[in-house]
Amino acid sequence: MPTDTALGPLLIAHARHAIAQGLGLDSEVPPDAPALHEQGAVFVTLTQDDRLRGCIGSLVAYRPLGEDVRANAFAAAFRDPRFAPLTAHEWAGTDLEVSLIGPTEWRVCASEAEAIAWLRPGVDGVILEHAGLRATFLPQVWSSLPTSALFLYELRRKAGMRGDRWPADMRVGRYQVEKYHGA
Q: What residue ranges of the chain are covered by domains with CATH 3.30.1490.150?
């Protein structure tokens, strides 16, 4: 995962440019940098008045970082199935956050208590996988679901699992992010 002090503003600039292009707006092409050609994974989150407006991303690096941020920014704005496509009218009031995803560490947790003991609230992004179902919450979600039990309950629901049941062979992944914010 490439990191340096200039990377955050660069990722934000590339995300903003991809969305502006999708809206048909003029936008200056952001600069290139070697870090954008290294493999990387990001989530792009759009908010309006502190409310989610779109969030799409990659958990695993499988393409160049610049391509990943542009594709996920476009998808968060125009392809998140939870929202109508972003409009040019909304764009001015939309905040953008790019989360650079670190490597995932996996563990099978036989119980919710085991998962709670392993996870670090406010630090870890979490992935749950079981029986072909999968979902993730970025570390930022801890602020709105502050207890570990509630966090894991809502994550199971997001994955389409029963919220009140913990399978003995649940795979749990944890990862950290470097997040960058740009209005």
A: 105-176
* Residue labelled with tokens 């609230």: 121
What is the SS3 assignment for 19? helix
**Cα 97 from chain centre:** 9
Q: How far apart, in whole angstroms, are the C-alpha atoms of residue 62 and residue 19?
A: 21
The superfamily CATH assigns to domain 7-101 is Hypothetical protein ph0010; domain 1 (3.30.700.20)
Q: What is the pLDDT along the chain (183 residues), one digit of tens a residue?
A: 445 678 999 999 999 999 999 999 999 999 999 999 999 999 999 999 999 999 999 999 999 999 999 999 999 999 999 999 999 999 999 999 999 999 999 999 999 999 999 999 999 999 999 999 999 999 999 999 989 999 999 999 999 998 788 999 999 999 999 999 986
Residue with tokens 């996988």: 129
**Residue 93: CA count within 13 A, CB half-sphere:** 10
- Distance separating alpha carbons of residues 73 and 22, to the nearest angstrom: 10
Query: Model pTM?
Result: 0.91
CA distance 112 to 106: 15
Token pair for residue 143? Answer: 């602020």
